[in-house]
Design a protein that fits this description.
The structure holds 2 protein chains of 2 kinds. By secondary structure, chain A is mostly beta strands. In chain A, 0% of the residues lie in helices and 57% in strands. Chain B is built from no helices and 11 strands. The mean pLDDT of chain B is 93. The radius of gyration of chain B is 13 Å and the shape is globular. In chain B, a hairpin with a 6-residue loop joins strand 4 and strand 5. The chains are: A mainly beta, B mainly beta.
Chain lengths: 111, 114
């Protein structure tokens, strides 16, 4: 069935460094790729998304890239801050209902 | 900003009790979802709804049931709670407009069955 693989499962970076989280999806018909951030005691919140007709999207320190040929998409966080510490989930949607989530990446930013 | 509310936030209750977890959204979204998640771990879809009077089972088998009598309300019920039901339950909703849309999540109910 459809799946989304997310790596790494845990990522530890020094404050100010960049963090990259990668996802690979299996369904070539997927056309929408959101990223969610989940802080302790909260539900996941959308931080950035990208659609299949775009290769890259940026919002301040956060960027997402998409390679449809390779079925890869990645989240890039630059100049990381302690408040970026959270669990991050990628997801892929195929027109309709189904959202397939990655297993999550726990990001630690050390001050 | 998303407006989706879950109550209670925390519930500790004995085995065999009937439990209803409440979820309400004020955004007029047709699609609603329930996920089971051990904190910070994978999200497992247990129920979803396309709209009023529509309910479907998700990927993860669950002994819970749901109802969708009103657009804004999507409660989840456990008829007889067991320790294996201990987990966090997240509710979400999304628009039905053309093109895929992100899900808006509540902050969850953390359930402990003794």
């Amino acid at each position: 069935g459809e799946n989304v693989e997310q790596h790494p499962s845990t990522l530890s970076v020094q404050e100010g460094d960049s963090a990259v989280i990668k996802c690979t999806y299996s369904d070539s018909a997927s056309n929408y790729f959101p990223w969610y951030k989940q802080e302790l005691g909260k539900g996941p919140q959308l931080i950035i998304d990208i659609r299949s007709n775009v290769g890259e999207k940026k919002d301040q320190r956060i960027a997402v890239t998409l390679n449809k040929t390779a079925k890869h998409f990645s989240l890039h966080i630059t100049e990381t801050q302690p408040e970026d510490s959270a669990v991050y989930f990628c997801a892929a949607l195929t027109g309709g209902f189904k959202t397939i989530f990655g297993a999550g990446t726990r990001l630690f930013v050390k001050a | 900003e998303a407006d989706i509310y879950q109550t209670p936030r925390y519930l500790v209750i004995g085995t065999g009790k009937k439990i209803t977890l409440e979820c309400s959204q004020t955004m007029g979204h047709d699609k609603m979802y329930w996920y089971q998640q051990d904190p910070g771990m994978e999200l497992h879809l247990i129920h979803y709804s396309y709209g009023v009077n529509s309910t479907e089972k998700g990927d993860l088998s669950s002994e819970s049931t749901v109802s969708r009598i009103r657009t804004e309300h999507f409660p989840l019920t456990l008829e007889s709670a067991r320790p294996s039901h201990t987990s966090q339950y997240l509710c979400a909703s999304s628009e039905s407009s053309t093109g895929d849309q992100p899900q808006h999540f509540g902050d969850g109910t953390r359930l402990s069955i003794l």
